[in-house]
Design brief:
alpha+beta, 11-stranded antiparallel β-sheet, 4 helices
Length: about 160
């Protein structure tokens, strides 16, 4: 699976579970979010609503800032929380997705590879595209948001990040 932002208002990508569509829009009725440059992210998988992040940032530094403060939304009706932290020590660098009692954690392995962990074991790995042994809707959603929002910089080594 590979995810790339194709347009300003969203993108479409193929996944093992069907077509994933991201819709990005300006928030309505939220002046503070407009001033901060935040967006509403809605994800659909195979034509059905998957997740919504109503106060999320555009890809890059603003999305990373929102995740450092913990982004809230919904995943299939359950509360979704996306949090992240950068640190000098590898063991403290992470991006976490929490919904419905499940916790998915992205960590960096090596200089370029990222891994997705659940229950203390790796469930997906990125080398040249994402490889996932047992894809499910939550994992696909987490990988898509992680890649499309460029959250990889949160788990990169802070000294090597800008080289």
């Amino acid at each position: 699976m590979e995810f790339t932002m194709a347009g300003e208002h969203g993108t479409t990508a193929g996944t093992p579970l069907g077509a994933l569509v991201l819709h990005r829009a300006r928030p309505r009725g939220d002046a503070a979010a407009l001033i901060e440059g935040l967006e509403v992210w809605r994800l659909e998988l195979d034509g059905r609503p998957l997740a919504e992040l109503p106060r999320f940032g555009p890809p890059g530094p603003l999305a990373q800032r929102v995740v450092r403060r913990t982004a809230s939304g919904t995943f299939e009706g359950a509360e979704l929380r996306v949090s992240g932290q950068g640190h000098l020590l590898r063991s403290r660098r992470r991006v976490e997705f929490r919904a419905g009692g499940r916790v998915l954690r992205f960590v960096r392995r090596g200089l370029e590879d990222a891994e997705l962990w659940e229950d203390g074991a790796p469930v997906a790995r990125r080398g040249r595209g994402w490889r996932m042994a047992e894809p499910d809707r939550f994992r696909v959603c987490a990988v898509a948001v992680y890649d499309l929002a460029a959250l990889d910089h949160l788990v990169a080594h802070p000294v090597l990040r800008n080289l």
